[in-house]
Write a structure and sequence with these properties.
This protein has helices spanning 33-44, 79-103, 121-136, 146-152, 174-188, 305-318, 367-380, and strands at residues 23-29, 49-52, 67-68, 114-118, 142-145, 162-166, 170-171, 191-193, 197-203, 206-212, 217-225, 246-256, 268-273, 276-282, 287-291, 327-337, 344-347, 353-357. The protein has 433 residues and is α/β, with parallel strands linked by helices. It starts with 22 loop residues before the first strand and ends in a 53-residue tail after the last helix. Bound molecules: flavin-adenine dinucleotide. Its EC number is 1.4.3.19.
């Protein structure tokens, strides 16, 4: 595998042409945040890297709220995933500093914390239980009375009866993060092929690159499939290696806070209203993001009147003053969901093919650690220890015994059982992000 120093100009990498010899070291399919961070880190480590996407820099991050919510997103049975989420959250400050330096762009990282509030006795009981669970895991969260919550956030409804303050759950602006990653990739010498990957190329039992929709063939030592919710649809990938990801639609509403109302909220506020989660994420630039629905409707990204109505209705219960704010945008995106809500990272059973997908509701949070572990896997062929529970092989059938993903403990569920909290596909398991 040939290497070159970051930024070293020994080939037409930024023009989209193949490197001398015609073969990339690493080829990434998909230019959402996960593909971009993988390509950036690979190029930084000296790999001749290409990225294929008709529209890099779009994807789910264009819609995402950008909560870095390792603690408030904790679900029962997802303790292993929590470990990865916390590890990525710890890397965020350094990651942001390095990316801002590399791109010359501000990514809107805000160390503002999160407040999860309760309205009635049931909510309070639920949050109290969550608090105990969090404390049992050594996580930092602090119980607050309704009055203390309103002292922190005066715009909260008088109906708030208590809440959990999580000082370490921050936020970043995913649109800015994506734009910065694009620039950092370009500066690190990643070759962009603005086209769709049509088919994985195989030579015997080895992945050797991709064919683009225009017919061009790109050869690569290692190919990373990072196509988000479409990762399970690429032609040419053997059936037993195809990642089991599915699209989970989320609708979001964006309001803006005029100067005269600032600061409207000082931190992310989240709540469960009528059994459904809602969050309000205030950005430094005056934007207020309200999300999100969670819908299993295939690849549909229609913004519906019902979705927007529910979001505004529930957010209004939490912060009645939102009705005064200008509505600037509605949008919908697709989370790449996996059977255990955890990502699939690293080598597959097909030599030459790696996965970086299935990040579901935590893709923004998991961006720093994904870049690091994927670069390591591309170079050494091995996943670092912190990522080993997330190997795609956990879903692969052992030879001749048929599919048996439920037989092995999975990172999303310490003790998986059908219908247990934390199992995917359960309509009762509403997701927050
Ligand atoms: C409403 C909503 C709110 C969210 N909020 C949060 C949050 O607060 N915090 C958080 O951490 N996460 C959040 N997420 C999740 C996060 O946005 C995703 O996990 C993450 O963006 C997934 O990134 P990705 O790069 O894997 O996939 P995508 O963003 O889906 O990117 C995949 C890319 O692959 C490309 N592609 C697909 N097929 C091909 C092909 N054949 N050839 C070439 N390219 C292809 C697409 O064009 C696309 O650019 C949210 C998501 C949604 C929808």
């Amino acid at each position: 595998m040939s290497r070159h120093a970051p930024g070293h100009d020994d080939g037409p990498h930024t023009s989209g042409g193949p490197p001398p010899g015609g073969r990339y070291d690493a080829l990434v399919i998909g230019g959402g945040i996960i593909g971009l961070v993988t390509a950036w880190r690979a190029a930084q480590r000296g790999l001749r890297t290409a990225l294929v996407d008709p529209a890099p820099g779009g994807g789910a991050a264009w819609v995402a709220a950008g909560m870095l919510a390792a603690v408030t997103e904790l679900h029962y049975g997802e303790q292993t995933l929590l470990g990865l989420n916390m590890a990525s959250a710890r890397r965020y400050p350094d990651f942001v500093a390095e990316l801002e330096e590399a791109s010359g762009q501000d990514v809107g990282h805000r160390a503002c914390g999160t407040l999860a509030v309760a309205f009635d006795a049931d909510d309070r009981a639920h949050l109290r239980e969550l608090h105990t669970f969090q404390q049992g895991l050594g996580l930092e969260s602090e119980w607050m009375t309704g009055r203390e919550c309103r002292r922190l956030e005066p715009m909260l409804s008088p109906g708030v009866h208590g809440g959990l303050r999580v000082a370490g759950d921050h936020q970043v602006d995913p649109r800015r993060l994506t734009a910065a990653l694009l620039t950092a990739c370009e500066r690190a010498g990643v070759a962009f092929h603005r086209d769709r990957a049509e088919r994985l190329l195989l030579d015997g039992d080895r992945a050797t690159g991709v064919e683009l929709s225009g017919g061009t063939r790109l050869a690569a030592e290692r190919t990373v499939l990072a196509a988000g919710s479409l990762s399970g649809r690429l032609a040419g990938v053997p059936e037993d290696v195809l990642p089991p990801v599915r699209p989970v639609k989320g609708q979001v509403v964006r309001l803006s806070v005029p100067e005269r109302y600032a600061p409207f909220l000082s931190r992310t506020v989240r709540a469960v209203v009528r059994g459904g989660p809602v969050y309000l994420v205030p950005r430094e630039n005056g934007e207020l993001v309200i999300g999100a629905t969670s819908e299993e409707l295939g690849w549909d990204t229609t913004v519906t009147a019902g979705g927007v109505y529910e979001l505004l209705r529930d957010a209004h219960e939490v912060v009645p003053g939102i009705t005064e704010l200008p509505l600037v945008e509605t949008c919908a995106g697709l989370r790449p969901g996996s059977p255990d809500n955890a990502p699939l990272l690293g080598p597959t059973a097909l030599p030459g093919l790696l996965l970086a997908t299935g990040h579901f509701r935590n893709g923004v949070l998991l961006t720093p650690i994904t870049g690091d572990v994927m670069a390591e896997a591309l170079i050494s062929g091995e996943l670092p220890p912190e990522a080993q529970p997330f190997t795609p092989q956990r879903f692969m059938a052992p030879p001749n015994t048929g599919p048996a993903p439920a037989a092995t403990p999975s990172p999303g569920s310490a003790a998986p059982s059908p219908g247990a909290p934390g199992a995917a596909h359960s309509p009762a398991q509403e997701q927050h992000t």
